[in-house]
Amino acid sequence: MRILVLAKPVPDTYGQRTLSLETGLADRDADVAVLDEISERALEVALAHAGDHDGTEVVVLAMAPQSLQASLRKALAMGAHDAVQVVDDALVGADAVLTAEVLAAAAQRTGFDLIVAGNASTDGSGGVVPAMIAERLGIACATSLSSASIADGEVRGERASDGATLTVCAALPAVISITEALPDPRMPNFKGIMAAKKKEIETLRLGDLGVEALPDDVARSIMVEASERPPREAGTIITDTGDAGTQLARFLVANRLA
Amino acid sequence: MSTPQDQTILVLLDRGPDGQLAASAAGLLAAAVALGTPVALIVGEDADALAERAAALGAARVLTAPGDQDALTVPAVDALQAAAGHVTPAAVIAAHSVEGREVAARFALRTGAALALDAVAVERDEEGIVARHAAYGGDYLVTSAATFGAPVITLREGSVDAPPPGDGAGGDIAPEVLDVTPSEAPAARVESVEPAREASDRPDLRSAAKVVSGGRGLGSAEQFALVEELADALGAAVGASRAAVDAGFVPASHQVGQTGVSVSPQLYVALGISGAIQHLAGMQTASTIVVINTDDKAPLFEIADFGVVGDVFTVVPQLIEALRSEGSS
Ligand SMILES: Cc1cc2nc3c(=O)[nH]c(=O)nc-3n(C[C@H](O)[C@H](O)[C@H](O)COP(=O)(O)OP(=O)(O)OC[C@H]3O[C@@H](n4cnc5c(N)ncnc54)[C@H](O)[C@@H]3O)c2cc1C
Ligand SMILES: Nc1ncnc2c1ncn2[C@@H]1O[C@H](COP(=O)(O)O)[C@@H](O)[C@H]1O
Question: What is the DSSP letter of A242?
């Protein structure tokens, strides 16, 4: 079985994330990029299955600028067998629909039985790319899974939906997306890091995929304005000396918040 | 030339596990009223029974489609496609819920429409309909627009206030049953549905005017009850940090932050939460922020309007007591 993991490099949330106020786009030069944590968890789902099932091949796929290739090396170091990166200047500022079209075309070209993604990325947090890939490829899709079991010919899991948990099952080939309820990703070990250094990352361009960034007949979503939120003003900080609860109650009442 | 108010805004309404309209319906229809004439789409069994409720919330027309309950998402995408073909909307609006956003996104991809995700407001400017987004946890406000055509917009739940009850036209409305041609797109099968067990008399986290959240500092699931007690004293919803969710103090649906729920309430009270950047991403746009933490260096104090350096187990009981005597005086 071949499992394709969608891994997205994103600005590190532990650092300051900046948007260019001119373009409304992530400032890739200003931010430190890492593999999205949820993508690493998705990779963990695939690697755990591969560990128990001989003959399972795990390939990571990303659409990301060339400069972010280093984060794909981490996926290889964790144990992915191969990596594919879609790189093209025309993809700067790609919206979710274009991203899904590109990843769907790249997935088809690479081949797969199952696609595993994160439920939502931390930079865009759209949470829709996996479902759109399924729509484009005409295959089944089970998203937001808080558990996943992969078997021959099908994948099953619990889906944390709105106000309910559903048990869902999809016949392969399929797309699933997983939530952070799934286990933490493994750390790369020394052997993995060494092996990753030697691996070739396959690079694809839009031309290889037959996808157009700005076709005449498909609308795109574009940023037309961006501004920074003004910083919050400093508040009152007190140290409890026995009556802080009472003082806080007074604050809430005075501000009509109690 | 039609005026903006004549333009149809197609609104996909979510349904809860009980079959009723989801809480997001009121905000979605309120957002649509501001853009044009809202036409609601309700999918699934007995959808017709919900038409009156949708009309009371502002829908001028209600379209329904039966849909196969056991097939995930695809029947709703097919219904939305049929509805859009029927009414030629100037925009399509859905909730940014797990279900709503997926239906909207698949519809956009299928029909070549522009997709604006997780909007906190929708407006018209000279160019047409635009969506506003709170990017990077509210650090930035970004406006997006479609290059052409009717945009598909998912609206963050709780971001648009519903009008006070009784405002809508309501009354008798005849639902129009759509003729949907199934796409035959493969769908995952739903094998069982387990409604979330939640104390439902508390306000919904996403739309609550007040939120009390607890973190790792609460120490245990038993002690987390203190968060619930204060929430009830204030009439607030209960939130949590990821550390509290990971430790099993509360279900994941309560998580506030970058990978949880984003809230923007009047009042946010953080108990025993340090204020990691990923937590701030989900609550820093609250109007008033109150923090109680033993560590005076906790980053949350930097954005607090009122901070108490102290132990939640002594400060909060006193606070609850003071609020009670305030209420009875
Ligand atoms: C990709 C990614 C996504 C994430 N998404 C989220 C998210 O959505 N939401 C989220 O919350 N986190 C998220 N996190 C995790 C985040 O980085 C922090 O680990 C988490 O928010 C910490 O939770 P906490 O503040 O409860 O715990 P801690 O950081 O351990 O803080 C506990 C606090 O309690 C205080 N305390 C202890 N005892 C008491 C007492 N008796 N009285 C008062 N105060 C006390 C301590 O001083 C301390 O400040 C994410 C992380 C990553 C990498
Ligand atoms: N550019 C990308 N490259 C690789 N995977 C992606 C990309 N964008 C989205 N994904 C995948 O889709 C998931 C959901 O992303 P999103 O819909 O953007 O919130 C992510 O967790 C990834 O698994």
Answer: S
Of A214, A235, A239, the CB nearest to B310: A239
Contacts of A62 (CB under 8 A, 6+ apart): A6, A7, A8, A9, A68, A71, A72, A83, A84, A85, A86
Residue A178 CB–ligand 2 contact under 6 Å: no
* Chain B, nearest residue to A98 by Cα: B109
For B113-146, how does the pLDDT look when each residue is reduced to its tens digit (9 = 90+)? 999 999 999 999 888 999 999 988 888 999 999 9
Q: Could B99 and A128 be called an inter-chain contact, meaning their C-beta atoms sit closer than 8 Å? A: no
Please report, rounded to a whole number, the percentage of residues in chain A having pLDDT higher than 90: 77
CA distance A18 to A31: 7
d(CA A177, CA A5): 10
Query: For residues B265 and A257, is the Cβ–Cβ distance under 8 A?
Result: no
Query: Does B105 sit within 8 Å of A224, measured CB to CB?
Result: no
> Which of A229, A105, A248, A202 is closest to B264 using CA atoms?
A229
Q: How many CB atoms neighbour CB B329 within 10 A?
A: 5
> What is the CB neighbour count within 10 angstroms for residue B305?
21
Please identify every stretch of chain B with a pLDDT value under 50, giving residue numbers as ranges: 1
Residue B221's Cβ-side half-sphere holds a number of Cα atoms within 13 Å equal to 7
Pull the structure tokens for residue A100.
């899904």
Quick one: A232 exposed, middle or buried, by C-beta within 10 A (0-12, 13-18, 19+)? middle
What ipTM did this prediction achieve?
A: 0.94
Burial bucket for residue B328 (CB in 10 Å: 0-12, 13-18, 19+)? exposed
Is residue A5 very low, low, confident or very high in pLDDT (cuts 50, 70, 90)? Answer: very high
Instruction: Quote the ligand 1 centre to B250 CA distance (angstroms).
Output: 14
Q: Is a pLDDT exceeding 90 seen at residue A68? A: no
Residue A107 makes CB contacts below 8 A (sequence gap 6+) with: A4, A61, A115, A133, A137
Distance from CA of A229 to the nearest CA of B (A): 5
Task: Please give the single-letter amino acid code of residue B8.
Answer: T
H helix or E strand, kind and range, residue A11 = strand A9-11
